[in-house]
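User: P-loop containing nucleoside triphosphate hydrolase. Structure?
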Amino acid sequence: MIEIFTGYFGSGKTEIALNRAVSLTAAGQRVHVVDLDIVKPYFRSREARAFLAEAGVDLIMPNGDWEDADLPVVSPRVLGALTSAEGEVLIDVGGDAAGALALAAFAPILHKRGYRMFLVINPYRPFAGDAAGLQALRLEIEHASQLRIDGIVSNPNLGEKTEWEDLLAGYAQVNAMARGLDLPVLMTGVTERWAERLERELAERAGWSQGERPAGPRQRVRNYLLPPWESEEGQVNRIGPPFH
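Assistant: Predicted structure:
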């Protein structure tokens, strides 16, 4: 199965894809990350290429002079990964119609091989709270990519400032958004700081309402990416050992 992650800029879709790749690799699976994000010049999977290589994740991206281009440059390796790569294939794609166009060329292959496309929602980012805007985004992505969005990744966070109350309120907000879109929440992101507490609360607390309970499997999220203006060498770099 191929997994595709899309969403508004700032939703955390790339962080979700990177963390999922590292988690699957740590569990013994072979993982390929395809960077098809042509929309933004930073916060892309390729910015963590050195770390991904160290973690054992195969990153497929534009090569050489084109690797930092904000252009629709697609490596020939993408076709090979989508048709015959063994293991898990995760695709990080731009979060609007222009970004989704990069997927359209591969739509027949994806339909044949099988895929799931996730819309990553962070309710604390601009535009995410606008139900009409989310529905318009969904339709734009589906039309441009010629693929369907299967469900939501709930990813409420404020980076390192995320508090426990932010997490719980955010899950409830995304659950409501998912109902409005008539899409299931298929995965829940949890900031690494609160991951263990969430598991304890889910095991011990019986009073979770359906509207507030985080749905689907949970993915711990460590922030691997920093904007260039916050890193020492002008390049995104927050590297640490993968968690288990």
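The chain has a mean pLDDT of 81. The CA atoms of residues 95 and 116 lie 16 Å apart.
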